[in-house]
Amino acid sequence: MKKYGLMLLLFFSISMQLLAQNPIITNIYTADPTARVYNGKLYIYPSHDVPWNPEWEKLGAVKEGHGHVMTDYHAFSTTDLVNYTDHGVIVAQKDVPWGSKVGYGMWAPCITEKEGKYYYYFPNTPADKSGFRQIGLATATQPEGPFTIEPNYIEGLKGIDPNPFIDDDGQAYMYWGGGKGNSLKVVKLTADMKAIEGETMAIENLPQEYKEGPFVFKRNGLYYLTFPHNKDTKNSTEEIGYAIGKHPLGPFEFKGTIMDRFEDCWTNHHSIVEYKKQWYMFYHHNDISKVGNLRSVAVDSLFFEADGSIRKVIPTLRGVGLTSASDTIQIDRYSHIHNAEIGFVHQAGVPEWKITKAKKDSWVQYNSVHFDIKPKFVKLKLKHTGQKGWIEIRENSKNGPLIAKALVDTTNDKWQTVKAKLDHKPKGTLNLVCVFESDAEMELDWVLFSKK
Ligand code: FUB
């Protein structure tokens, strides 16, 4: 099971220590993450999913068929991809001068920085009923705000999923859109970032199916246009694909898939960023709520091939960042699993998971545990109902050096904490592999290294 420890209310922000596992944000539901690096910190600007409240209908609200309900935006930051700070609400529906007060349509936002000023673009339901969504702007002098919302939406940007991109020559572009055909669009922004200039262009030569959530970045002189798309809106979910061009206005050539679709969540929406010499992809999934409109942001590492193509990102529960060996290791947020499953419990807002159905020939790997302590013992919280059983903890692979062998009390069929002396003392950063040896199915909750 997963218990989120340290949750401190610090002025108006909340610090969360999440053991470097996916999903990375668990205090609220979040989706559509834009990750940016400002002043040495990594910031995440997601949208904020909430459940529909029927009381709003008395105020004139109308629930839209797609089910996304969003009233405000938070910003988050981290320096280690382990500990995140929630900076609280940065822009809210109630404060948007041009917005409907009962629209609940604050979909995917995006931000960029120019000359020390932060430009935060967000879609919202317009009060003047001029469209499904219009795109507005809020500005700040710090990445976490406070943000000042412009009085009007930006003329000519009707639609969703804004993505501003500033090229090395200082010219800013806006990508946005959603729909079938050539539905992703691009246009130049004026120098003050508050209006569009020139001709709006529909981006051609992309898959003709449903597309949304464009995210553009530049690497080694190439412009990467990445976007979720859905081959079949009735029976399928979104995968994330990419195209490459030699100019921000294109043409772009479609190159393939960065992340395969999740079977159980209609949307995916991502951003790609380099931080401390490693590329990451931030995206969302619904593995806390299991509901398509209550999503949670996750992150995994992303790698480029030598020719500039993007290696497919396999979403993991483990996520990124180091887990300290002094923490309770929630092994169910695994890197690899063989012949076992994850059980899910969701109680009172606290997400909890465990390994289930593990027996002989089952193993679970958990990557990047940093041994910043010198433990002598390991404790395991587990459940077992058979005649015989133990778990071996090994280094780096299922046949790697044995760290410890934990024997199970087979007379006890309730949850038990088993303690084992270490065979040798692990050093540095390594991957843990729990190998199950059991005549009956076992459940494993967590692993904890200790000095006593
Ligand atoms: O979050 C609402 C909408 O769902 C976004 O704007 C789309 O990109 C999709 O993720």
Class of the largest domain in CATH? Mainly Beta
Q: Per CATH, what is the topology of the largest domain?
A: Tachylectin-2, Chain A
**Architecture of the largest domain, CATH level 2?**
5 Propeller
* Helix count, DSSP H or I runs of 4 or more residues: 0
The fourth-level CATH homologous superfamily of the largest domain is Glycosyl hydrolase domain, family 43
CA radius of gyration is: 24 Å
Domain count: the total is 2
Residue share in helices?
under 10%
Unreliable stretches (pLDDT < 50, length at least 5) are 1-11
Organism: Flammeovirga aprica JL-4
Family: Belongs to the glycosyl hydrolase 43 family.
Site (Important for catalytic activity, responsible for pKa modulation of the active site Glu and correct orientation of both the proton donor and substrate): 161
Signal peptide: 1-20
Protein described:
The chain has about 450 residues and is mostly beta strands. Helices cover about 0% and strands about 50% of the residues. It contains no helices and 34 strands. The protein has strands at about 5-10, 15, 30-40, 40-50, 70-80, 85-90, 110-115, 115-125, 135-140, 150, 165, 170-175, 180, 185-190, 195-200, 210, 215-220, 220-230, 240-245, 250-260, 270-275, 280-285, 295-300, 325, 335-340, 340-345, 350-360, 360-370, 375-385, 390-395, 400-405, 415-420, 430-440, 440-450. The strands form 7 sheets. The chain has a 6-stranded antiparallel sheet with strand order 1-2-6-5-4-3, with no helix packed on it. Strands 13, 16, 17, 18, 19 and 20 form a 6-stranded antiparallel sheet that branches. The chain starts with 6 loop residues before the first strand and ends with a strand. About 45% of the residues are buried. Mean pLDDT is about 95; it is low at about 1-10. Bound molecules: beta-L-arabinofuranose. Beta-L-arabinofuranose binds near residues 47, 68, 107 and 213.
